[in-house]
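Q: For a teaching handout, I want to show students what a protein-ligand complex looks like in token form. Below are the inputs, and the small molecule is 3-acetylpyridine adenine dinucleotide. Please produce the holo structure.
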Amino acid sequence: MAASPSNAAKHRASTADTYDVVVIGAGFAGMYMLHRLRGLGLSVRIYEQGSGVGGTWYWNRYPGARCDVESMQYSYSFSDELQQEWDWSERYAPQPEILRYANHVADRFDLRPDIQFDTRIDQAVFDEANNSWSVTTSDGSTVTAQFVVLATGCLSNARTPDFKGLSDFNGEVYHTGHWPHEPVDFTGKRVAVIGTGSSAIQSIPLIAEQASELFVFQRTANFSVPARNAVLTEQEREFFRANYPEIRRKAREEMRNGIYQEVPQKGALDDTRQERQARYAERWAKGGLTFTATYNNIAIDKAANDTAADFVRAKIAEIVKDPEVARLLQPDNHPIGSKRICVDTDYYATFNRPNVKLIDVRANPIEQIVPHGLRAGGKDYQVDALVLATGFDAMTGSVAKIDIQGRAGQTLNQKWAAGPRTYLGLMSEGFPNLFIITGPGSPSVLSNMIVSIEQHVDWITDCIAYMRERGVERMEATRAAEDKWVAHVNEVASTTLYPQANSWYMGANIPGKPQIFMPYIGGVGVYRQICNEVAANGYEGFAMTSAPQQRAAASS
Ligand code: N01
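A: Here is the structure, written as tokens, with 3-acetylpyridine adenine dinucleotide included.
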């Protein structure tokens, strides 16, 4: 439902520099947060660095960018009208369509009047006397808010490695996470792509169709499964529309990753080799992320994991004609799924094209960028364009760019110097009234992000309503609750194969970043239950302070 004119007027009635809540980021998290807080009658301001809504889908415009969660599930569930009326065109929505959807939501719920675009937040300082945050924007103005919500995204701080000579390169340089708004035409050009993560794996097949020569610089081979993308039929859309209440409920409560799917009942080693091959072949033919859910122990049992990894390695050998190239493309240093599995269209087959060359950066490290190309392993590769598909400073990178000062002048960067510490991923001790959406310590990037975003936004909204009803002005995670939660997050991670990979989940892709498994791997259903119980128990593990209490404490 669009906000009524009277409501909209009320939202904007706060004084220009004081808000109840400042939200940082206008992606899917920030937009829904604004919508819900308006429902409480609060004054809210979103600050967004980009010139439009959509967050990750605003920035990542590289060729082939699309979501790896199916479109009928990668969508908001909070409004039945919205989910009934929006027509997704394909099984996996392409980036332009997801961005159209984000814009549609912004218009439909009249969100834009409360979003300030082209504005970064540089600093947020907690004022202990007033229980409020003083927030400074990139245009130099300062506003005050009782609450700040970080809706900054987990994969929004694109990372350019410190390549020697990069600024001397004479050609075009692109980063997949910061792609130009106009289409880039590589026709007839010699192109180098550095990196072979999801962004590279999606863009390489399309760049290869245009480029005269494409050099792919691979340091670590990644597992990828076919997307089998297709146009959605009306019948498929109708199935979801008719069953949304049950599908969404199952996704939230019963699925570990927030994606409604068939749940495996047995382990990989419970089947004979022949049965296993048949099951993997069936999932491979079906396509998509559910490949690693063929069995229930692929993420925890190395022997089980090996059977899935071997299947994919054999597929690579079958698809790629040159045995040496196939060997290089076969991942050999991490369990399948311990890095985010990629979902592709024709990725491996692209290496059969005569204009595509794979360069093994592990054996031949990139030494430097030279004016006309790239030097690796003592050899020069002449190129006209450089595509950096080198990933992100994930989960903490965007938060770290903001100078956040909590109680007693402690900064969040100081506190997280040895790795992020949160209670439930939602708050960090020492930083009152500061909420994080899909932060470290929550299922976040291991889940269907929209499911996790909606859960966090609903929880935060209920929490703020609870505080308001009781005259509570300040809320903060306790040290004891945070310590316990951090220990639990680490303990659960250590029972899986995830920490065995040098992944961005571990912070391993950023030199000097502490290596800690950042998301909570207990599953979205379990996690939701824990969050609900904490709330039902009067926000157990959080200290709540009302104004008179605080004054009394100060004078005693
Ligand atoms: O980034 P990445 P991404 N020299 O970090 C290489 C989501 N996503 O943008 O592995 C040479 O995965 C690096 O090599 P290595 C998804 O969650 C989703 O591709 O560090 N190479 C790696 O190959 C995904 O996981 C979708 O050895 C260097 C690559 O760059 C996440 O975003 C689509 C290097 C970076 O891969 C990130 O994906 C796209 C160096 N100095 C993204 N530095 C979908 O929904 C880095 N690399 C489908």
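A: Two things your students might notice: The first strand starts at residue 18 and ends at 24. The two ends are 50 Å apart (CA to CA).
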